[in-house]
Amino acid sequence: MESNHLADYLKQRIRTVPDWPIAGVNFRDVTTLFNDPEAFRVMIEAFSLDCTRLAVDVIAAIDARGFIIGGALAYQLHKPFALVRKKGKLPYRTVSEDYTLEYGSATIEINEDACAAGQRVLLVDDLIATGGTLLAAAKLFQKIGAEVAGVAAIIDLPELGGSAKLRDAKLPVHALCAFSESE
Questions:
Q1: Residues whose CB falls within 8 Å of the CB of residue 2, separated by 6 or more in sequence, listed in order
Q2: Which spans in 24-64 are helix H?
Q3: Both ends of the chain: CA-CA distance in Å?
Q4: Contact yes or no for 33/10 (Cβ under 8 A)
Q5: pLDDT for 22-75, tens place per residue?
Q6: In sequence order, which residues have a C-beta less than 8 Å from that of residue 97 and are 6 or more positions away?
Q7: Alpha carbons 30 and 9: distance in angstroms, whole number
Q8: Which domains does the chain have, with CATH numbers?
Q9: Residue 61: strand pairing partners
Q10: With a threshold of 0.90, does the pTM exceed it?
Q11: Measuring CA to CA, which residue among 59, 106, 54, 97 is closest to residue 78?
Q12: Sign of torsion, CA 93 65 171 46?
């Protein structure tokens, strides 16, 4: 499917919840894509093509909606799947990274053996907002010697500046669609 058609197709199927979690925010709910088998298939196929071009060795997904996309993508591509979790959720030895959010700070972790040094990792999440979580995840994989091949997300919210920050950090960004606050 052509990228403009793909973006329109997905945007028509993503639910917007106004004033959630706080007044003035339009929450982009991708669970509607997970509930639509054809939309889910189209989305995973689009990500698969990107992974092939990037020569990715490992799919790494951000807690929690990223797990749904990343798991399906790793299965589709027959690639290892690594989890990026909130602090304290992984039972093995971990590497941690603190980062700031719009409303505070957080810590994410990966297992220290999430991938081998030199492997090319694709970071997957549902959306790119301010970019903090994805930048922190990239740092985690770089700490264990991996190369972050790129970032993939269903939605980019470019007005929040996250995709620009990721590109400034020399990370290729692939979002299937973008929303402005006025949409």
A1: none
A2: 31-34, 37-54
A3: 23
A4: yes
A5: 898 899 999 999 999 999 999 999 999 988 889 999 999 999 999 999 999 999
A6: 107, 108, 109, 136, 137, 139, 140, 143
A7: 13
A8: 3-178 (3.40.50.2020)
A9: 83, 124
A10: yes
A11: 59
A12: positive
